[in-house]
Amino acid sequence: MHKAAEAREDIGPSSKSAHTLSPAAKYLRRLDERFAQFEVALNLMAAIVILFVMLLGVAQIFSRKLFNLPIPAYIDVIELIMVLFAFPSLAYAHRLGGHIRMEIILSKFKGRAYYAIEAGAELLTVAMVSVLLWYSYRHFLRAWTVGDGMMDLNVPLWPSKLVVPSAFAVLLVRCLIQLAGYLRLVAHPDSVPIAVPQSEGVRKIAQRQLASDAT
After folding, report:
1. Cβ–Cβ < 8 Å for 192, 11
2. Residues in CB range of 211: below 8 A, 6 or more apart
3. N or C terminus of the chain: which is more exposed, having fewer CB within 10 Å?
4. Confidence label for 208 from pLDDT (cuts 50, 70 and 90)
5. What angle is formed at CA 180 by the lines to CA 96 and CA 98, rounded to 5 degrees?
6. Beta strands 155-156 and 149-150: pairing type?
7. Boundaries of domain holding 171
8. Are 163 and 149 in contact (CB under 8 A)?
9. What whole-number distance in Å separates Cα of residue 95 and Cα of residue 89?
10. Per the structure, how many domains does the chain have?
C-alpha cells in the first residue's frame, strides 16, 4: 500500500552502517541535528504558551462566574499571543513530516524517482515559504513604521507581527535542509537517509493501530 515509504524504511542506519558517510553528508547530518534542537526549543515554547492560554481561560471563567470580575482585555491578550503557539512549531512539524500530505500517487514510486518527486515538492515549498516570508515581513514593517498598536492594552502590535516572518524564516531553513537531503538521495538512492522525514508507512501504522486496539 505504501511501497515508497516501506522502501525507505529498509534503508536505515543499521543496514548501511558499513558505509562511511562523506564529509558533506556528515556536515548535513550535524546541521540537521543542531537545527532540530532549536526547533524543539521553539516547539516547547509554543507548548508553554498553550498551557498559559489554558490557565488564563480557566482564570477568566472563575473570575467572571464567582466574582463577576472578568480579566480586563482578555480577548486582546489572547489575540496578541496567539502567534506564539500558532507559528513557531511549523518547522518542527515539517521536520517530522507532520503536515498534511496526499500520497496516493506518491506511494507508487520508490528509489530515485520517489526522492526526485519529494525534492521537487520541497523546492515548491521553498518557493511558497519564501513568498510568505517576504509579505509577512512587509506586513510587520508597515506595523512597525506606523506604530500600530492595541487600544485597550496600549501595547504595540509589531512584536507579535514579527513572530510570523521569523517563524517562516526558520521553516525556510528547515525546507532548505530537507531539500539538500532529498537531492543527496536523488544522486545516491542507496545512501542512508539524512535530514529527511522518516515515514512508517501506511501499512505499518495500520498494523500498529490494530495491535493496539487488540490489547
Report:
1. yes
2. none
3. C
4. low
5. 15
6. antiparallel
7. 3-210
8. no
9. 10
10. 1
